[in-house]
Every structure is written in structure tokens, then in C-alpha cells.
Amino acid sequence: MTHAPVTGRPLKIAVLGAGVVGTEVIRALVTDSHDLGARIGAAVELVGVGVRDVAADRDAIVPTSLLTSNAADLVAGADIVVELMGGIEPARTLILHAFETGASVVTANKALIAAHGPELYEAAERAGRDLYFEAAVAGAIPVVRALRESLSGDHVRRVLGIVNGTTNYILDQMTTDGLDMAQALSQAQELGYAEADPTADVEGMDAAAKAAIIAALAFHTRMPLAAVAREGITTVTKEDVDAARDAGYVIKLLAIVEDTEAGVQARVHPSLVPVGHPLAGVHGAFNAVFVEADDAGELMFYGRGAGGAPTASAVLGDIVSAARHRAHGGLAPAESAYAAIPIAAAAEAHTRLQIRLVVADRPGVLAQVSTALADHGVSIEAVRQHDTPAARTHGGVELIIITHRARQADLDATVAELAELDAVIKVASALRVEGV
Amino acid sequence: MTHAPVTGRPLKIAVLGAGVVGTEVIRALVTDSHDLGARIGAAVELVGVGVRDVAADRDAIVPTSLLTSNAADLVAGADIVVELMGGIEPARTLILHAFETGASVVTANKALIAAHGPELYEAAERAGRDLYFEAAVAGAIPVVRALRESLSGDHVRRVLGIVNGTTNYILDQMTTDGLDMAQALSQAQELGYAEADPTADVEGMDAAAKAAIIAALAFHTRMPLAAVAREGITTVTKEDVDAARDAGYVIKLLAIVEDTEAGVQARVHPSLVPVGHPLAGVHGAFNAVFVEADDAGELMFYGRGAGGAPTASAVLGDIVSAARHRAHGGLAPAESAYAAIPIAAAAEAHTRLQIRLVVADRPGVLAQVSTALADHGVSIEAVRQHDTPAARTHGGVELIIITHRARQADLDATVAELAELDAVIKVASALRVEGV
């Protein structure tokens, strides 16, 4: 037996933060400690809960005697630190402190892992301790473990993820109930799926942080958050959704990470997905992550990507894993061990576009438009003309083009040239087509 | 650091079996050994491949010098034994031998784990070694790891799985292309999705073995294969598929494991699934496993459940995990540590039925039928009458009833009584409705 024997004393668990997720995790640690102990093969003990203000948090589920505002001391005495405060500081400093004092760390902090993952991985490795963060990406959906462990003998080529429930809810309502963006957003806010200030969700910032984490795991490399190309859903219109539907697509906000010839790449943008694609069937606030790997082929992981209980489920699974290692030896895969792979510029991505144009209603227009595409080496898969009310208010008709696959830079140049053509009254939208 | 230091020498890997999966695994061990070593944090070395007949397997990818028909000796010198022979013996004896000589084991052998899982878990635990078997359930889909590790801090209530690609292909073709069972089966055979003797698939034996494994993992208990209630798809007709579609359902062969008040239960049978359910969108030979857990809520894992490369992906992921433990210490979760939970009889399951009757076309028939259901405490959710050619050949009309949820025993008694009614010419079928 190479593993260390079970320690005689219970493993000491410190939880930092007693918000929605923290409360669920604390509840489980208090009420299910027997089951958790059986699964770990060693007893666990909640030794304290770090909160900002002990008086204010007095009515939480946790016994008042365990509450402390001295997080640093709490961390120093723990075997496992569970960071559920969110934000960069003081979470980052406390986690580094935890590793220094010999604790393993479980966190749900997506912003922190996306921004400071490599620093934290290295600190974990130096300490010979675990850093688990399943809950940082897509809540209870075990995509981090799948990429870190299950697919560790395979080569991931591409991941397409619906990783933000708010934007999926909004786009799904626009698709299935015919709402416009403003209606769908206000409905999402009424139902609690969107914040009063929805910027982080609708502008794709939340999804971009997850894309950075997924890229690092999928390709065993580093993906700075700043290198993730990002576009939100605010410009997506009901007309875009309708045009996509007519062509057999639904619009989803996708986080896409790809291993291309030019390097690895991560981007977030609204995307047309074929209705037959498994991601097209992901409705409401659900999340799903679609993985394409050399040997495994196509895999999809689906579930609730947010909420107190689903996030707590992921955190508790990580606590069991970290505790098993503390009790029996062992270490989570070291993410810092891998070499840096070049990051390809966003302009080097290859994709397809659905371009919606308002054009003059006269002969020769399609020839002019087709020539502009051909000049940039972009070929056309399908073209349709529509007489829409919106186009008529601009004194033209709508022309919808779906291109074949081409370089993003060439597609961008094509769209810019189309906007300059005298036959083109307006470029209504240009949306990427993915998952084909 | 509680974990053992990295060993100085490469980890010795022995592969038993050089069939479709074995060849893929051997290829990866030979050509990707550098990448695998980086992910493990230690070098690995393929030390031999056990085959029945060295001369016959000479043209395989593996160097002839590594081929041996002496599997026992090969096992005795290995750090990790990868069992890809299939069948119960000699696989079982060789795996027990591997644990005795201090090796960890990775296997794709579903029949063996379903029949002898507890014995093997115990042998692994006694030896302080790992037993990994991701590939035994649903190929590359990491459902074993999800249940064993990711959900280890949650309570799984129910799992519904499409775990047999052959039957999903057949039922999907009947649904989408209107084929009858014989046509769909022969198409599946032509395309290589079904064996010349399709019994193990179409009679649900393959799915039952997977159900036994899933139940054991989901509920941390033992589920003998003999306790899995099993019904195949051979009795499903085109008329059943059409009637289901009219009511908003598709028919899938589901492996269902449930934690009920009467105990845990595992069963395999054709099931009506609502078209809006994520499992309804699983087409062709794909597999998917839908998990309902207390905290995580609904999760689904989707992908290719068979084939050389997808199965090899799962095996390689397990090899990396087992090798990491050999190199750095640590141990996979011990499945033998859990107590036995009572197993509920199949008759105690609660489900709903779609009952298709051919009844006499005269007044009072519905009253007679409704009374029979009410007498057994079974209430009706929907009832439709159809004038079908098939019913007409029996001199009646078709009556399709969907019941509310009731005890299986009461539903069985209801169907038996319906068959005896003078108004009922024939019970055409009675299929369970699941996923609602």
C-alpha cells in the first residue's frame, strides 16, 4: 500500500462565505456528516464559517459559535478550506494562505480561477495539496472533472458550451415564445433568472470567464481571460431569431474553445446552432457543454448551471474528493504541469456567418453581393430573399446569406465591404453559425 | 505532503486482450506515451499484451515481442493491468491475481462487474489498489466517474439511461423513419449496429448488466444482476410507436434505477418518454444517462456508448487515474464500504402505463373499461379512441389509455382484468411511461 493511512482525528473543514451556496454546503456538512464520512472513509468536522459580519449573519443555519470574522485564523487551522465568498480579494489571498498552511482548497469562484488559475495551481502543487473547482463552471454539471480526469487519455478538439443560464433563458424565450429581447430580459428578471443589472450575463462576461477555464482544462494550457474574444447577446433581435429558425437554426450564446492549426482559441458570441444539434434542445436556464474529442467522439453534459443546491452538490463532491486525498493520500491532477500552447488570434478562427442585409429591390443586386463575397474567398451555402416589414421601412428587401466556412478575418472584411455597396441599404446583422 | 513520492522507474502496464478496444488502447500507449506521461506525472511502459494465440495475433499493432499467451505471468509483473478480454473467466481470476500481486486494474468488462463487482471491489480494497471500470457503462460517457466521484456529496434519487445503442438505433428508426421492428433490426445489422444474433441487445440483457452497475454506484449498495427486472424491445410494434407519438411520446429502452420507499430498484423495459424530455432527443446509436439528484437536480450525460475509439478513451482516462495513484499515492473511492440497502420487488415500482386495447365498437365499453381501472385504484390521465385498420381486422376499434402513476402490481392486475372483459377483444400492448 503506497497511500498514507487514515488519520485518527476528523478532518477539519472551514467554509468561507455563508451566502446561498455556503448555506447549502454548511447544511449538508452539519446534517449529512455521517454519509459524507462513509464516502470519504474518514470523519469530517465543520470547524468554522468565515463571514464578514458575525452579528449580521447570526440567523444563518450554522451555530453562532462557529461564525468568525477572522478568516485568516480559521484557514490556518483547517485541513480543507471551502471558499464560497466570490470575488478576487480577499479570496485569492486566503486561498494562497490555505496552501501555505497545508490545507487543500475547494472553490466555486469562477472569476478567481479564470483570472488567477495558474498562480493557484502552482501554489497547490508547491504545497502538495488539491485545488478543486467543479462549481466554477456550469454548477452541478461535472464538466471540470470530465476534462481534468475522464478525458485525460484523449485529445479534446473543441468544446461548445451553453454556460450561462440567464442568456439561454432569454434566447430560448425569444425562440419559443416569440418575445423580443427587452420582453425576454424583463421576464428573466421577474423570474429571478437575471440580475437587476444584467451586464455580466448579457454581455458574455460570465461566459467568457468559464470559457477561459474550459480552454485551460481542455488543452492543458493557459488561457488568460483577456485572450477570450467576447460578444454579448444584446444586439440579437427577434428578426435574427426568426431568420435563423427559417433556415433550420436556433440562436444560443456559446462559449467556444478550439484547438486549431494556428493555436488554441476561446471565444464567446451568439451563434446559430442547427436544430438537430444536441445543444439546440437545451431550454430555459439549463446549461450544457458539448465536447468533441479524438477518441470519445461527441459528448454532452447537461444540467443546472446555477443555483444554491446544484452549486452545493458540485462543492460537496469536491469536498469528498479532497477529503479522501487528505485521509488516504493522493492528489488531484496538477494543472500547472503543462506547457503553454500558442493562442490564436480571434481573426484566425474559422466559422460560418448568417448575414442579414437590407438591399435595394432591383436587378443585379445579388450579383453585386455575390461578387463581394467571392472577392474575399467566401462562398455561399444558401441565400434567401424576404419581403419583411422591417426591410420595407428602409425601402428595400431582406437578403439572408449563409456562408460556407471561412477565416473570421475574411468574413469580417466581407461584411465591411457589403456595408459599403450601393445596393446594400443596411447590414442588419452578421451572426456566426457553429456546431456544424 | 502525505502522498508517496513519484517512483523512479516507469509504471508497467499490461494489457489483456487485443481486440477492437485493446488495439486502440495499445496504439495510444505506444504512440502517445509522452502525453500520457505528462498527464500522469510519471512515465508509463507497455510491458506486454496477453492474447490467446500469439501466432494468430501477430499482425496486430503491438510489437510481436510484447505478445504473450501467458497472461498470469504478465499480470504478476505489472503495476496496472488493463483487462479487455471480456467474459467472466479467465478475466475474473486474472483480475483477482492482479490485486494479489499488487497491481491496480482497469477493465471495460460490464458482464464481469455486474456479476462479480462486490468480490472485485473487496479484493481491490484488501490490496489497497484501484479498480476502474468507466468503459463498462456507456463507453466514453463518464457516468461511472460522475456517480462515484462528482455526485459523492449528493443523494441520487433516480437514473434513467439509454445504455444500449443497438436498441436505441432500432427504436429511433421506427420512430423517425416509420420502419417496423424487423426492418429496423435488419437495417441495424447491415450497418453493424446489431450483431447477427441480436439477443443480448434486443432482450435487454446488455442494458440490465449496466443497470445493475449503475444502481450499485448510484445508491452505494449491491444490486445482483438477477434482481434487475428485464423486458426487451421485441414486442414493441409500429402501432405502439405511432400511438405514443400521437400522445406526445417516443419509445426508448430505458435502464431505470430508483431509490423508493420500499427500497432500491433496477429495471429495464421499453418506455414512453415525453418528447420534451432530454432523453427523447437521443437519436441513432447514441447513449445518454439522465440523473436526478437531491441537490444537483437533473443532469444528463450524452455520447457514444460503444465502439473501439470511444471505449478506448474511457479506458485511457482510467489508466491515467490509476497510474496517478500508483505514482503519487491515492485510491479510487471504495465501493465495498457501503451497507446493503433492501431491494424492492419489481411489483412495488410506481409507474404509468399506455394501454392499447382493441374493444367492441358499442356504447358502454368505456364505462366498463373505466370501472376496471377504478377497481384497482388506477386513475386515467387520457383516453383516445382510434379507428385503425389493425383494430378493424379484429372487429373492433382501438382504445388508448394513459394512466396516472400507480403501483406496478396494481397496473398488472388492471391489465389482466381488462383482458378478461367481454368488451375487450384484445390487449394490444401495455407500455410504461417514464421520465415524467
Query: What is the CA–CA distance across the termini of chain A?
Result: 49 Å
Instruction: Assign the CATH superfamily of the largest domain in chain A.
Output: NAD(P)-binding Rossmann-like Domain
Overall morphology of chain A: elongated
In the CATH hierarchy, the third-tier topology of the largest domain in chain A is known as Rossmann fold
Largest sheet entry of chain A: 11 strands, mixed
Biggest interface and which pair forms it?
A-B, 64 and 65 residues
Number of strands of chain A: 17
Helix/strand structural class of chain A: alpha/beta
Strand-residue proportion of chain A:
25-35%
Q: What's the gyration radius of chain A in Å? A: 24 Å
Percent helix of chain A, as a range, is 25-40%
The quaternary state of the protein chains shown equals homodimer
**Can you give the mean pLDDT of chain A?**
92
What's the total helix number of chain A?
Answer: 15
How many domains of chain A? The number is: 3
CATH class of the largest domain in chain A: Alpha Beta
Low-confidence stretches of chain A: 1-6
